[in-house]
Amino acid sequence: MKVFTISPDGRVKRVVKKGTDKIDAWNDIMNQTTQTLQLSDKGITEISRLYPKHFGETKKINGSLLKRPQISPHIMV
């Protein structure tokens, strides 16, 4: 999806959202690229660009190591 908003002063806001696997990621307002441009008689100038931050993006936290197997070796498959 691409949405362009053009102001009378020549400023353009371009928002781009790419498809996602999950609807929660699609609905996340931070999961989009937002670009601001300025139109003039000399051409187009990029003012800013904000890249997407993906839904659920977190830092890895060190936890305790697994101390025993989760599945008993005596279970038959």
Descriptive overview:
The chain is mainly β and 77 residues long. The chain is 6% helix and 35% strand. The protein has one helix at 23-27; strands at 2-6, 11-16, 33-40, 43-50. A 4-stranded antiparallel β-sheet has the order 1-2-3-4, with no helix packed on it. It is elongated and about 75 Å long. The mean pLDDT is 83.
Short description:
The protein has 77 residues and is mainly beta.
List keywords for this structure.
single chain, 77 residues, mainly beta, four-stranded antiparallel β-sheet, 1 helix, 6% helix, 35% strand, elongated
Q: Report the mean per-residue pLDDT as an integer.
A: 83
* Percent in strands: 35-45%
State the shape.
elongated
Largest sheet: 4 strands, antiparallel
| Cα separation of the termini | 47 Å
Order of helices and strands: EEHEE
- Strands of the largest sheet, in order across it? 1-2-3-4
